[in-house]
């Protein structure tokens, strides 16, 4: 299946991924090839087959409700690109 | 080369116990080796020499006091740079995490620390473990110690190369579609991908959550069993880690595989597989038969669909897992962003390399409105069929064998222009991750001076069967004794 | 509302009263300095994994049972993906297909009518962090924002109703009913003004009698049930005006501005959301067995609706009074305790819903944290019965009791506020009143018997209310005859 530059731009926007014009063109070509290759999946009949989202069947894994403070919060903040008053600073949010 | 450098950990452990060598001497020796070959191999993103020397000293003190030491205590180990190490740079070989200092340790790292192993450093990988050659590293390409013109495989290329080049005794890697086994195969070492859920993923920087698994890369099968003993087990911090008993894997190393039923996956012995590889695998199968195993061919029809299926599921999960690199809490932020959106776009553009971008695009696309059923749901259904093929086969066979990779290590740059041909090099390893079963790769021959890997696959939680088979084969051959000449 | 009728459905987000967050062990307490209740998991550090808090599931099952829902034997979590700085992983772990519970209902009372509102679904998810906007108190006009992740990962239960409410009054009653239920179950403190209960309204209009639903808008940013009602009222008026003017309603999110009383479009430039939901691979499916449900069922006490019914039937008190009692945490226990000691349910209810509630509300206190004890309240009621104090005096005494924690007897003794039972003392006061009010006295003597009421009032005034009115009446008649 062939993708268009519009498809690529739309998906890049959903993924908040900046792309140069050159990257977009390359991706149109590469993704078209890759999705073309995936068409082989249409050959296989999966009607009524249950999907597998986990490699192994598991269920009901829980934690008990107990608060345990994490003591290295400063190490979390230290990774912040910009921190002010113990909070992560982000530039202006336009809606 | 000092012969201590080529010994597996269980032999070094004996020498440490007998005080024939100290951990400090060993550590010094390995760092000297790193200094002399690392400029050629480039296996490490970060070296942790100071910490290593300190750790080794502590182990030596223990030994001098006559205390018992564990099997990996004082042994130099390499750690793939997608395992979080508190206060030590953990980059995933990505520019976006170039300066990230984790505030916590991965569970396997805690286990390695508790076991007293001596980390040499953090090894190079394809950015976010996406790739089969380390050429997708955001920093540099690791070289195959057997031939510096060729790639070491990937994504755990640094972990495989550092063991092959004797820069560490053993190492940890991670495997999502073959990322331990394929580089093990290319570099002539042993690599084991455990059953999904056997080893905690907590602190492994996620690529594809339902496929990722941490495992050992070692000089021989015994070392793989020893390292598995350390890292396997239930972790309450990982909901998908299995709460099942962990055996002593070294007990499986009996050398006896009489009447063991082995299925040879015929679908992985046909077209697309190099002749030299096929020949080596056939010879290995013959050897296994000589050792008393019962060999039959088995067909796995769904394997044809495993690769496209994988390239839907893995990128879908990856696109989601990699959303958090948004320049808010950690990681690269573009200088002086004007507003939030441009911060997102530019930081992610600058921080991610082409393969990561490609997979984010594939993954976002297959999950987007209108395409979910055609791609993601379909792939999850095909995944069920792959699992069923394995279940059918394992009703008849104890283990399955195939080549690990269709070819030996390829030349650097050979496949970078064509992502699809790169993806095809994972054809034999991917079905294993889709089904969550364990598999091991071990050396079984050479072609043009480059190692060939034999893949042995086992039932869910039956790492013992694949270790047993691999050990019997290793004992009967000399392939693992070969070392590259650097 | 003439030719149109409105259709309303509500989404309620309730923060659950667990000790720790939904997927990590951080505390859920409020008021800490920014980014103190955080850890690698809830800040989405690379490599972390979520583990589900069992109590969160139990609280949701409890709620689902109380709302007569079907609890799914098999449910799963999913990732809802969108980028926003308050969402550390840039996806929210939520439930999409296969939620925990579906198909329930709740009964509400509006103006004496009982209505049944169906519950569409209940699911679990994680809360987001908080943004502090600099240079302005909201996004618009701010120059940058600061992110605090203390709230990130606090468990949220989303209760989605069917579009079964016809008026904003019903919507308000529905939220009040759900809030009372959550409080009585002990799963949420349901404080809308503090954000522990949040409510979004979906509202549309259609010509009366039309079966099809009109295009709905989503009304956000209401932090009280009154604001919810006002917002829905305003939005319905807006929609009717728009339709009458020939405009088309567009499906959108609108913010309620409490100052103007209007809803405003967010006019988001962002295209329609594409959340790219897919099953959360890091969490395993949830299977709720019948045994587990039964176990939780046994732990649920009497629900508000049941309690109202019982109080009305057993104690014969007014429904409004029961509702007031149930609204205030701990008051029902206090009420039942007082009745055991004292009897006379309506009198106890009058005091609790009157003076005592007024005092507690003004001081933002709960009865169990106040200085009033069951025994002291009953002691005061006994003093009224004995005639030691009047009801009027008692209203002052109860405030002092609430202030000091002293018994009514002590307070009465200290202030000398007991009733005058000495007839001689009373007669002195009566004679004084007769002397000072010759006109009403003459009126009475001329046959205008009603003027005695005025004279009794004057005696009460002179005695500062410490006289028993019927005794005063009797003695006055005697003096005047």
Largest sheet of chain B: 11 strands, mixed
> What's the SSE pattern of chain B?
HHEHEHEHEHEEHEHEHHHHEHHEEH
What is the percent of helical residues of chain B? 25-40%
Taking the alpha carbons of the first and last residues of chain B, their distance comes to: 10 Å
* Chains forming the largest contact: A-B, 52 and 74 residues
Distance between the termini of chain A: 34 Å
Q: Strand percentage of chain B, roughly?
A: 5-15%
Number of strands of chain A: 3
CATH class membership of the domain at 3-261 and 468-481 in chain B: Alpha Beta
| CATH architecture level-2 label of the domain at 3-261 and 468-481 in chain B | Alpha-Beta Complex
Compute the number of helices of chain B: 15
Structural class of chain A: alpha+beta
Morphology call of chain A: flat
* Helix content, binned percent of chain A: 25-40%
Examine the coordinates and then state which fold CATH places here, giving the name of the CATH topology of the domain at 3-261 and 468-481 in chain B: Amidase signature (AS) enzymes
Keywords for this entry:
heterotrimer, B: 486 residues, alpha/beta, Amidase signature (AS) enzymes, eleven-stranded mixed β-sheet, 15 helices, globular, C: 481 residues, alpha+beta, Arc Repressor Mutant, subunit A, nine-stranded mixed β-sheet, three-stranded antiparallel β-sheet, 40% helix, 20% strand, elongated
């Amino acid at each position: 299946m062939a993708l268009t530059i519009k498809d690529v731009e739309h998906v890049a926007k959903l993924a908040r991924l900046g792309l140069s014009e050159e990257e977009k063109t390359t991706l149109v070509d590469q993704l078209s090839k890759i999705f073309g290759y995936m068409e082989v999946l249409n050959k296989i009949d999966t009607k009524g087959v249950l999907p597998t989202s986990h490699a192994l069947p598991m269920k009901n894994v829980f934690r008990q409700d107990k608060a345990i403070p994490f003591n290295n919060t400063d190490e979390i903040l230290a990774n912040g690109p910009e921190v002010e008053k113990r909070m992560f600073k982000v530039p202006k949010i336009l809606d | 080369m000092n012969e201590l450098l080529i010994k597996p950990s269980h032999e070094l452990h004996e020498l440490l116990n007998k005080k024939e060598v100290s951990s400090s001497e060993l550590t010094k020796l390995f760092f000297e080796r790193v200094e002399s070959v690392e400029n050629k191999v480039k296996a490490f993103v970060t070296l942790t020499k100071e910490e290593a020397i300190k750790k080794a000293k502590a182990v030596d003190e223990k030994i001098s006091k006559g205390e018992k030491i564990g099997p990996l205590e004082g042994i130099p180990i390499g750690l793939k740079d997608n395992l979080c190490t508190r206060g030590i740079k953990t980059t995933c070989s990505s520019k976006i995490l170039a300066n990230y200092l984790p505030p916590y340790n991965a569970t396997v790292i805690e286990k390695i620390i508790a076991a007293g192993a001596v980390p040499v450093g953090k090894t190079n990988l394809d950015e976010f473990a996406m790739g089969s050659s380390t050429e997708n590293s955001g920093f540099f390409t690791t070289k195959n110690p057997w031939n510096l013109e060729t790639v070491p495989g990937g994504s755990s290329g640094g972990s495989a190369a550092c063991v092959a080049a004797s820069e560490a005794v053993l190492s940890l890697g991670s495997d999502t579609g073959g990322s331990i086994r394929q580089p093990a195969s290319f570099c002539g070492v042993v690599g084991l991908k455990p059953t999904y859920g056997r080893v905690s993923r907590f602190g492994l920087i996620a690529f594809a959550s339902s496929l990722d698994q941490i495992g050992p890369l070692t000089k021989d099968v015994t070392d793989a069993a020893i390292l598995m003993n350390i890292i396997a087990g239930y972790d309450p911090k990982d909901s998908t880690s299995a709460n099942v008993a962990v055996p002593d894997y070294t007990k499986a190393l009996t050398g006896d595989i009489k009447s063991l039923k082995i299925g040879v996956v015929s679908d992985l012995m046909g077209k697309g597989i190099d002749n030299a590889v096929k020949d080596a695998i056939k010879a290995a199968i013959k050897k296994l038969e000589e050792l008393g195993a019962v060999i039959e061919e088995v067909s796995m029809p769904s394997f044809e669909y495993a690769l496209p299926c994988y390239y839907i599921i893995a990128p879908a999960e990856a696109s989601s897992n990699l959303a958090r690199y948004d320049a808010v809490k950690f990681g690269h932020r573009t200088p002086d962003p004007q507003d939030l959106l441009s911060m997102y776009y530019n930081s992610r553009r600058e921080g991610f390399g082409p393969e990561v971008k490609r997979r984010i695009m594939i993954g976002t696309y297959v999950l987007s409105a209108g395409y979910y059923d055609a791609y993601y749901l379909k792939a999850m259904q095909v995944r069920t069929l792959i699992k069923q093929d394995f279940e059918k086969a394992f009703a008849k066979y104890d283990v399955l064998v195939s080549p690990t990779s269709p070819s030996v290590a390829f030349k650097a740059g050979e496949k970078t222009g064509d992502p699809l041909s790169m993806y095809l090099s994972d054809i034999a390893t991917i079905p294993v991750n889709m089904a969550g079963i364990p598999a091991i790769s071990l050396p079984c021959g050479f072609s043009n001076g480059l190692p060939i890997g034999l893949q042995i696959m086992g039932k869910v939680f039956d790492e013992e069967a694949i270790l047993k088979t691999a050990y019997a084969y290793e004992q009967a051959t000399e392939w693992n004794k070969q070392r590259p000449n650097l | 509302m003439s030719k149109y009728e409105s259709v309303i459905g509500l989404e309620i987000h309730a923060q659950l009263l667990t000790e720790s967050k939904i997927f990590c062990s951080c505390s859920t307490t409020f008021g800490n300095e920014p980014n103190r209740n955080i850890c690698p998991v809830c800040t989405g550090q690379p490599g972390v994994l979520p583990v589900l808090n069992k109590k969160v599931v139990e609280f949701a099952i409890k709620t689902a049972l109380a709302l007569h829902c079907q609890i799914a034997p098999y449910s799963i979590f999913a990732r809802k993906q969108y980028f926003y700085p308050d969402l550390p992983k840039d996806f929210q772990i939520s439930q999409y297909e296969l939620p925990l519970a579906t198909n329930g209902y709740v009964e509400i009372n509006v103006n004496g009518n009982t209505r049944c509102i169906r519950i569409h679904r209940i699911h679990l998810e994680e809360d987001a962090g908080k943004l502090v906007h600099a240079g302005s108190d909201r996004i618009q006009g701010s120059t940058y924002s600061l992110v605090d992740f203390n709230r990130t990962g606090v468990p949220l239960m989303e209760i989605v109703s069917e579009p079964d409410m016809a008026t904003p009054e019903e919507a308000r009653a529905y939220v009040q009913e759900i809030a009372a239920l959550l409080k009585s179950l002990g799963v949420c403190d349901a404080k809308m003004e503090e954000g522990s209960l949040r409510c979004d309204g979906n509202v549309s209009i259609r010509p009366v009698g039309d079966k099809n639903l009109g295009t709905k808008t989503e009304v956000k940013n209401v932090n009280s049930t009154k604001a919810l009602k006002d917002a829905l009222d305003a939005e319905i008026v807006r929609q009717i005006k728009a339709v009458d003017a020939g405009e088309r309603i567009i499906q959108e999110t609108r913010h309620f501005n409490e100052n103007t009383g209007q809803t405003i479009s967010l006019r988001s430039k962002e295209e329609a959301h594409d959340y790219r939901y897919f099953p959360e691979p890091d969490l395993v499916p949830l299977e709720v067995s019948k045994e587990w449900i039964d176990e939780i069922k046994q732990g649920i006490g009497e629900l508000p609706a049941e309690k109202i019914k019982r109080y009305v039937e057993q104690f014969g008190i007014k429904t409004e009074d029961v509702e007031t009692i149930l609204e205030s945490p701990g008051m029902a226990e206090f009420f039942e305790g007082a009745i055991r000691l004292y009897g006379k349910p309506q009198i106890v209810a009058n005091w609790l819903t009157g003076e005592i509630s007024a005092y507690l509300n003004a001081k933002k206190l709960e009865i169990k944290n106040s200085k009033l004890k069951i025994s002291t309240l009953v002691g005061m009621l006994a003093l009224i019965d004995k005639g030691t104090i009047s009801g009027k005096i008692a209203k002052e005494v109860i405030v002092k009791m609430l202030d000091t924690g002293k018994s009514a007897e002590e307070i009465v003794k200290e202030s000398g506020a007991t009733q005058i039972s000495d007839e001689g003392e009373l007669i002195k006061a009566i004679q004084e009143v007769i002397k000072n009010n010759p006109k009403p006295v003459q009126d009475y003597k001329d046959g205008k018997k009603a003027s005695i009421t005025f004279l009794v009032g004057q005696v009460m005034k002179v005695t500062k209310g410490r006289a028993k009115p019927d005794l005063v009446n009797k003695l006055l008649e005697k003096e005047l005859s």
